[in-house]
Amino acid sequence: MNISDYPSHLPGDRSKPTPWGLWATLGISALMILANIISGITAVVGFSAFSPNPDFVKDPAQLASNGTLVTLSILISSPVIFGLTLFFANTRRGLAVKDYLGLHEVDWKQTLKWLFVLLLFAGASDLITLLLKRPVVEQYMFTLYSTATSKPLLWIALVVAAPVSEEIFFRGFLFYGILNTRFGSTGAVLLSSLIWAPLHIQYDLYDIATALVLGLLFGYARLRTNSVYIPIAMHALMNVLAAMEVMLHITATSSGS
What we know:
This protein is mainly alpha-helical. Helices cover 72% and strands 0% of the residues. It has one domain (17-256).
């Protein structure tokens, strides 16, 4: 699908409302990413204030993989990003927020199709990881899960809060803003992924590269369906699979010992 097939408006077409321009979109997006960082710092400060071990919070590696802190950070930052995304989309007068962010309903057949595509990707990714003799489940994930004080809250953060806020921002606001510039559909899919993937600083280069390919898949699904609900569902399912792999590995290890 190219941009002429997509229900959006070409740059320079003043007959219909358009989203923020390229530089405004990138600038606003940078502000929202900064807000996300500040939210994370707020979570660290709050966590350190109540931590029984003050020395623990001095180690960035341990902080990044602490399940309780990650849960708290996601649950604080997600509403902030979600609210700012809605605010800036709404301030662009004349363009409905529903259209701006791709909040369009899709039928269950399309949803199942794209979830199946996600399962294929997850299987292929694990196979490639095994062939490269890398662990399918990184130590980061084990530490994250084992150090989470509340497993239900961790699940809510990973499966609901993060997918909803991230996809509405990256595959909603940022995607649609780039789509309506000279970069078009290819740029929207590529740039939104290139900005999203490196933010996963808890991973190494291999896993960030995997996240980049995953982001491209999310972006393509967004383009093909004209709905952000599909990448939200795919993102949520991917996080469910990752968490289940951790649980299965822990169970297998426990039973083996």
